[in-house]
Amino acid sequence: MNLTLKIWRQKDANDKGKMVDYKISDVSPDMSFLEMLDVLNNELIEKGDAPVSFDHDCREGICGSCSLYINGEAHGPDRLITTCQLHMRTFKDGETITIEPWRATAFPVVKDLVVDRSAFDRIQHAGGFISVNTSGNTIDANAIPVNKQDADDAFSAATCIGCGACVASCKNSSAMLFVGAKVSQFALLPQGKIEATDRVLNMVKQMDEEGFGNCTNTGACEVECPKGISLENIARMNREYLAASLKG
Amino acid sequence: MALDSKIPQGPIADKWTNYKNKIDLVNPANKRNIDVIVVGTGLAGGSAAATLAELGYNVKAFCFQDSPRRAHSIAAQGGINAAKNYQGDGDSTYRLFYDTVKGGDYRSREANVYRLAEVSTNIIDQCVAQGVPFAREYGGLLDNRSFGGVLVSRTFYAAGQTGQQLLLGAYSAMNRQIGRGKIKMYNRHEMLDVVKVDGKARGIITRNLINGEIERHSAHAVVLGTGGYGNVFFLSTNAMGSNVTAAWKAHKRGAYFANPCYTQIHPTCIPVSGDHQSKLTLMSESLRNDGRIWVPKKKEDVEAIRSKTLKPVQIAEEDRDYYLERRYPAFGNLVPRDVASRAAKERCDAGYGVNATGEAVYLDFASAIIRYGKEQATVKGLDTNDEALVKKLGQEVIKNKYGNLFQMYYKIVDEDPYNTPMMIYPAVHYTMGGVWVDYNLMTTVPGLYAIGEANFSDHGANRLGASALMQGLADGYFVLPYTIGDYLSDDIRTGPISTESKEFVEAEAEVRKNIDHLINNNGTHSVDYFHKRLGKIMWNKCGMARNAEDLKSAITEISELRAEFWKDVRVPGTANEFNEELAKAGRVADFLELGELFAKDALQREESAGGHFRDEYQTPEGEAMRRKEFQYVSAWEYKGEPKDAILHKEELAYENIEVKERSYK
Q1: Could you state, in order of their start, the residue ranges of all structural domains in chain A?
Q2: Which residues in B220-252 are b (16+ Cβ under 10 Å) and which e?
Q3: What is the CATH number of domain A3-100?
């Protein structure tokens, strides 16, 4: 396949940035999208040009590093996958592909397609944990049975990979799906109930301070989420937040 | 220097308890005056950082990823072992210990392995308390499954994402301490050297990957939880960034490197599809609970499959060779990884590989789908003879167990494994070798510790499935926090370590010199060009089967490639910016040294054991032939060039387990 790539280039956080066109030929449909970019970068390096920077690591859809906005969609046109799992067979010969970074005030660009997602970490520093010290003497793991449905729902929420596609897809750059998933994982488990009030209040407060927008129930986040995190998690967070606020 | 493994005296079941009772402790007020650096934030580093901070130490944690939560432990799929015996199937601490030593082909240290088995149960309790959502039964209790090389169900899991859930648990414990200011987290920082002052590890030199700044960080002790070196093969299941640099720099500063040739080649990975490939993807060993591995019996069927005139589902049952069930009836498809990988290679070398390259075998779920489907139909009172219904019900069960893995496979290969068998082939996955450590997990450099995959200690020559997560968390949560305290008790009067000493200045200058060389080299080829060539040498000559002739030529070729790399590599950009190529160049430079030591170690070890298989040493049936005279750990001391490394031997004594033929038949 022969393709034209329109790629966002930005030298550093202070640079204005612009779209630059690249031609790439002999792309195999079996390549992953990032392998296609590897080929482009190799060509650029051997020509003496600067390669395109992008975040990536595990290349199997679980680390949450990769974060490309492809043809106007987070992680590209396919569903329930990350950018690294997107394969070139999804595209047609001769196609023009637009590649941009996540765009959100709370995710400033570091370079080219790399953004700073440390806001997600800070939200979790504010309450994304259960306060239990390591001792080896906590109670036996089977001492508290957990309803299977709750355990499965907590797991589904916990599969969030923190990639930020929800924020990138949202017209308000809201992080509610991410925070909702984090709050839900703990809210659904008996271990998490003790600190539930403080947790939701602190995490939401930090989320607002980071400059994420609000949720207006469009649902784009759920559609683009590579892990299929459900909107129910936002609803659950809102319930938790309301209950916590009333307890105050 | 003679190796002292510092194994405590006494019966094996009492060693750890007695040890803990006798070590020196640091009082809480003094802990506030002691700094510890933890490099790497995977299961080992993350759990260690969190626990040390809970204890009151000032922790500085470093990772090269943009968040500690992205360390490669996150990709572990299948599960974590623990001797809980929740299934009442005869499990015990001793049995987990025994399985691990046998699984490691009698090349691990008994005392360490026993301790690992002993603390395994605490890990599950701890993780559940943190809110890790393990899979549960309908009664609300924890579920288990089986992994290779054992006859009990002791593996705890969270679908095919156990590593992710455990890492998020450790990360949440870190978050709590970061929020309290007890951990200072340095994301996107790469460690480029260890600094020794008066013979003790007292700090590190790092590069900030965002702006290229070189920084000095001091502490009273340094802990490396920096993972394995599988990426020396270029293609592996490791993440793109996984590297040996931290461990290798430690080696160059005096830490012995143990058993570098012990590499785990995992039997069930998606086969290589072409030259563009950047990494390989694992399909969890848990799939072997339900998947059956086979190749066609007849060569003409193989030909027809390769030319796509025949589909695997069209091959009759009697024309299939379920070669693991045939060769190893006792363990069948659940033989350990080294055995399963070699058996796949044997069939493919004999010409029975089922894809165009001849390097793939089938992993088939059809009989499991029918078995589960009939079970479900019976439970629901439906017609067990309705084939379509049974298949549908069975597929739902398989989807619940392995859905994410099936989806991953489908996205990569573009074939639906619910309806056609998966094609799989072995790939580099894990390294049992690593930095040599004593019972305290301390390297041969005082104050420098190595934990998790970065050290060599617990898995011998082959690691059993679901034991990496166990070891990482055991080291970080339950072992290191004790052993490091014993060492740090001597440092309560030391006070802060200055970063202005000549040792820090010199180490920084050396790091800068290396970076300047790479940036100004202006060669003709990219870093990947050299990395791929190194990977080819490693895979062809130091891969699943090795022999003296190949290993000797690998040593020469790697050393020549290294010289070429330093002369001809091209690193674009500058040192003072986000420059991934520069980071990669430094990592590949270290792989080019490690690779040579790897081959040298494999050449020296004239036996076959676990993941190390020498053509010259095999039984008439093609099984690994272990040799008594090699019952030791090879610990290499750095002396300038890899070829000059000096071998030190730690003899392994087996007092609690009889060393015998490792049979899974």
Answers
A1: 3-100, 118-247
A2: bbbbbbbbbbbbbbbbbbbbbbbbbbbbbbbbe
A3: 3.10.20.30
First to last CA, chain B: 42
Q: Which helix (H) or strand (E) holds B482?
A: helix B480-488
> Chain A residues with CB inside 8 Å of B122's CB?
136-137
pLDDT value of position B266: 95
pLDDT of residue A137: 83
Q: Is B59 on the interface with A (CB under 8 A)?
A: no
**Based on the number of CB atoms within 10 Å of its own CB, is B406 exposed (0-12), middle (13-18) or buried (19 or more)?**
buried
Among chain A residues, the shortest Cα distance to B179 is held by A125
Nearest in space to B269 (alpha carbons), one of B318, B305, B311, B233: B233
Beta-bridge mates of residue B115:
none
pLDDT tens-digit series, residues A103-162: 999 999 999 999 999 999 999 999 999 999 998 888 999 999 999 999 999 999 999 999
Nearest to B161 among A159, A162, A192 (CB): A159
Distance between CA atoms of residues B151 and B664, nearest Å:
11
Cβ pairs A/B, distance under 8 A = 224
Spans in chain B with pLDDT lower than 50: none
Distance CA A67, CA A107 (A): 11
End-to-end CA distance of chain A: 60
- Are the CB atoms for B302 and B315 separated by under 8 Å? no
Q: Determine contact: B524 vs chain A, CB below 8 A.
A: yes
Cα B467 from chain centroid?
A: 9
Helix (H, G, I), strand (E, B) or coil at A150: helix
Strands B35-39 and B58-62: parallel
State residue B621 phi and psi, 5-degree precision.
-85, 5
Please state whether beta strands B58-62 and B183-186 pair in parallel, antiparallel, or not at all (unpaired).
Answer: parallel
- Looking at per-residue pLDDT, the higher value among A19 and B661 belongs to A19
Which residue, B184, B220, B214, is CA-closest to B448? B220
pLDDT at A248 over 70: no
CB atoms within 10 A of CB B502: 8
The listed CATH number (3.30.565.10, 1.25.10.10, 1.10.1060.10, 1.20.1250.20) that belongs to domain A118-247? 1.10.1060.10
DSSP B260-300: TT-EEEEEEEPPP--TT-----B--GGGGGT-EEEEESSHH
Q: What is the mean pLDDT of residues A28-41?
A: 96
- Domain B503-631 CATH class label: mainly alpha
* Contact status of B578 with chain A (Cβ, < 8 Å): yes
Q: Any idea which residues of B carry the catalytic annotation?
A: 337
Contact B178 A142 (CB under 8 A): no
Contact A48 B65 (CB under 8 A): no
Contacts of residue B135 in chain A, CB cutoff 8 Å?
151, 155
Question: B268-428, what's its fold?
Answer: Flavocytochrome C3; Chain A, domain 1 (3.90.700)
Per-residue pLDDT, B663: 87
